[in-house]
Amino acid sequence: MAQENCPSLPIIDIDRYIHPTSLDERDAVIAEVREACQKFGFFQVKGHGVSQEAQKGLLQGLSNFFSLPKEDKVKLSFLQNPCRRGYEASGMTLREGDALPDSKEAFYIGREEPVVEPPGFHGPNVWPDLPQDQFKQPISEYYEQTSQLGKIIWEILLQGLGFSTTLMEGFTKRPIIMMKMIRYPSTGATLPGQFGVGAHNDFGGVTVLLQQPEREGLEVWHEESEDWLPVPSIEDVLVINCGDMIQKWSDGVYKSARHRVINKADLERFSCATFWHGDFSATNPLNPNDPNKDTVGQLLLRRFGSQFSLSKETLAAAH
């Protein structure tokens, strides 16, 4: 548990950036985000432009889907999908150092595109057999709104490093934006010592996270205090964090922090993470002379390649 003297993640009102009344307001938000990313790698936002209607619609949609019979959900397994979209059952993720696999179950979507393009980061989603207004429609609306927010966060991060937002034109022509919807079982349905999600770093770009209000669980590792900081689940407040790719691209100015989820209540808990990475072929836009020429796509393949239907040649090219 985090100690009482540990710091807490700041809550930043980014409406001052989106709808500023002065340049000073925008500059203040940029400075606050920079400081939070340097210190924690995480921060919280309000005034973010993602409507409460969209948030509530998403949470209801997750309840509608995850309450389906297991046999209906496994038919949509993401391991049988060329774009790694669909359903992940509980117990499928075991991290090195964890005694037990994650208890969470999840569902993945990305931008809806008609044709699968190898190696599989662009293509169609799969959808459960539910009326559109019970799942596809609210999930798609929330995806679009958080996709827009992710782009705004990227703008702020770039300016915090002294770059112009025009730099985004070089790596956001057709960005990879994935969304992971998660259900955590209640504590009574979780084994002793089992995490909802074990400690890990996000590997890529910006993460926009919705936590179900008043369902606590997320904890962030804080190096200075050497402790886990609980991140409260507050209505209409979203959590933002930087992945490993941003840490590398920023030459370590922005942190990528370990985090984990332990459902604290004897109730199921929902959350949703939108991951905003950038173009498949993009390399470090902040430093064209970076000797590391890894593309966003290569980083994705290294992390998730075993979960795509890929040739040995494609996987080898990512390493």
UniProtKB/TrEMBL annotation:
Record's keyword annotation contains Oxidoreductase: yes
Swiss-Prot/TrEMBL GO biological process terms: small molecule biosynthetic process
UniProt KW keywords: Iron, Metal-binding, Oxidoreductase
Pfam families linked to this entry: 2OG-FeII_Oxy, DIOX_N
Statement: the UniProt record of this protein carries the keyword rRNA processing: no
Source organism superkingdom: Eukaryota
Ranges for domain Fe2OG dioxygenase: 175-279
GO MF annotations, alphabetized: metal ion binding; oxidoreductase activity
InterPro entries: DIOX_N, IPNS-like_FE2OG_OXY, IPNS-like_sf, Oxoglu/Fe-dep_dioxygenase_dom, Plant_2OG-oxidoreductases
Protein family membership: Belongs to the iron/ascorbate-dependent oxidoreductase family.
Name listed for the protein in its UniProt record: 2OG-Fe(II) oxygenase
Species annotation: Aspergillus campestris (strain IBT 28561)
Lineage: Eukaryota, Fungi, Dikarya, Ascomycota, Pezizomycotina
